[in-house]
Design goal:
Helices cover 50% and strands 5% of the residues. It is mainly alpha-helical. The protein folds into two domains: 82 residues, no CATH class; 127 residues, no CATH class. The chain has a three-stranded mixed sheet. The protein has a two-stranded parallel ribbon with strand order 3-5. The N terminus is likely disordered.
């Protein structure tokens, strides 16, 4: 993960003391970690189902408490695994030349979220041995976990191998910059440490509210989840290249 550094005066369009990005990491390692965590999430669901049917019992806790604990653990493992998977997709994205794989790779977290909670919800709803209170609370908890896990597992900013390659070609040797919570990377930034100035002597106006920036390559920006080039920076720094993914924000 890229480190954060404070800017001396963002409002004055002066950027300094910018921290360099850390290495992007290995996509395979992230994918293996994601799969392990997803398996643990599914194990928690299976344990909850076994508990539901009386195949296992925990004597010092009642059924409802145990179910909630398994649901929470299921959710935690799911979300962490999904974040690792999305990280891997940004480091090594799938190609749009294979639409099926591209869709699966970018929706795998959501698919696993459904597998982690839908079977449990169905079995809870159809179980006639549970008392009404236990069933209601457990179903609500599992449904909320499904919504949270699904929302957290979706990659709202996917990128294809072709889009990443286009950006790397167009911005080869060019430093890019991004904020901790933004979804785009920028080039129209004054960086005194790098001896870089802009034509108009100002930073990109979309950075005026930022109090920290990270500098790196476009590959590092994409690995950090910043999959789009700021359209303002593209226009003002005259960046050309077919297939580059931009945010399509109008001129401020």
């Amino acid at each position: 993960m890229a480190e954060k550094k404070k800017i001396e005066s963002a409002s004055a369009n002066t950027v300094s003391n910018i921290q360099n990005a850390k290495p992007v990491g290995n996509a395979t390692g992230y994918r293996v970690g994601a799969i392990i965590l997803w398996v643990l999430a599914l194990v928690c669901e299976v344990l909850a189902i076994l508990l539901l049917f009386g195949k296992i019992s925990i004597t010092f806790m009642n059924t409802l408490v145990c179910l909630i604990i398994f649901i929470v653990l299921d959710l935690v493992f799911l979300i962490i695994g999904s974040q690792l998977w999305k990280k891997a997709n940004h480091i090594k994205p799938a190609s749009k030349k294979n639409p099926t794989k591209f869709w699966l790779w970018n929706n795998m977290g959501l698919i696993v979220a459904v597998l982690c909670f839908c079977p449990l919800i169905v079995l809870l709803l159809t179980n006639k041995d549970l008392d009404k209170k236990t069933k209601t609370i457990a179903v609500v908890a599992a449904a909320v976990a499904l919504l949270i896990g699904g929302a957290a597992s979706i990659d709202y900013n996917p990128i294809s191998a072709e889009e990443k390659e286009a950006a790397q070609v167009a911005l080869e040797g060019t430093a890019v910059y991004w904020t901790p919570y933004g979804k785009v990377y920028h080039t129209h930034v004054i960086d005194e440490a790098m001896g870089h100035t802009t034509e108009d002597g100002k930073d990109c106006p979309y950075l005026n509210r930022s109090d920290s920036l990270t500098r790196g390559t476009v590959e590092e920006a994409i690995a950090a989840g910043k999959t789009k080039l700021c359209s303002y920076c593209q226009r003002h720094d005259h960046i050309e290249g077919d297939g580059i993914k931009t945010d399509d924000v109008p001129e401020p």
